[in-house]
Model the fold of this input.
Amino acid sequence: MDAVTAWTNERTRWIAFMGESMKFDWKALVSLLAPIVLVNVKGGEKLIPLVPVIVSGITSAEELFKDGADKKAHVLGVTEAAVAAANATGQVELDPVEVADAADHAIDTVVKVANIVRDAKK
Done:
């Protein structure tokens, strides 16, 4: 994807997040914030190839589970599977333990940031 297409996609998501009525959309907010937060926390550089998968895991967990621990376990499970798949391609070599540690902290940070924004809109 080229830079113009990426920017257009992000702009479209931002407009969807803000909306005409300024209605809050947690999933849209996570889709915008998570890529930035994930790669900027401690160990985030290890997550770069997995950002789309982790973002998808966070947003799907929100729909699938009520309990926070179940949501996080889902995202970590998706991340673990993505590490195995990425390593199987032979194009990258990701350390599953390092990625899990970085993802554990990064997921918490993404959720905290999104919740701060949600609470600020109340």
The chain has five helices and no strands.
